[in-house]
Amino acid sequence: MLFQNRKDAGRLLAAALKEFRGRNCVVLALPRGGVPVAAEVAEALDAPLDLLLVRKIGAPRQPELAIGSVIDGGTPIIVQDRELISLTGTSPRQFDEICARELAEIERRRKFYIGDRPPVPLEGRVAIVVDDGLATGNTMRAALQAARLRRPARLVMAVPVAPAGTLEYFRDQADQVVCLATPEPFGAVGYFYDDFSPTSDAEVIRLMRDQAAVHAANPNVEAGGLFPFLKQHREG
Fold first, then answer.
1. Mean pLDDT of residues grouped by 10 in the chain (236 residues)?
2. What pLDDT score was predicted for residue 73?
3. Which CATH entry fits the domain spanning 55-114: 3.30.310, 1.10.760, 3.30.2310, 3.30.1310?
4. Which of these CATH numbers, 1.10.1270.20, 3.40.50.1000, 3.40.50.2020, 3.40.50.280, describes 6-53+115-235?
């Protein structure tokens, strides 16, 4: 195994990202599995931690087949795989209906995980998007597109492990790609963790709360919306 667990992977990934400490960066996690990894990175870089919520849009008769993605709420960003939409015979109405359901789930999860606080601003900052690994990379692709639209000065993709072929695609999607290992044959992300048990909602909430507490005294971070989240969870 390459990593004991996600926390171990996060510590190793943080070491590979140490150049960004002090460079006004924001760490963005893909829930749920990316949050424990990203929390270690955020702590090491002394950076705020936020979420990028992405939901797959599955084909009507093959829900496991992603024909698109929807990212975050507020102003949703929708990614369509037009080739697969055509091949699966998905009508525009069907796509819109599935998309609406997934967007509602994103809004539910964001409120559940971080309350009513707005996303941490990315404009002019270094945005580091973190997950626990890549397989096909569809979710990460959508997340990077969403992050790019928020106009960071630099967009970095960081993962502990990924297949080399998939990783190569992302060199055009991010300004910098950081990956600790590209083993072959690949198989699945979980093959490279000793403990790859699912990350619970409770753990996501705890990690987000803890990171908010670390930065609550920082007025620059407070302006980005972390303090209201911490206050809400303390009062709740």
1. 94 98 96 96 95 91 87 76 93 95 89 85 96 89 88 97 91 95 92 96 93 67 39 38
2. 57
3. 3.30.1310
4. 3.40.50.2020
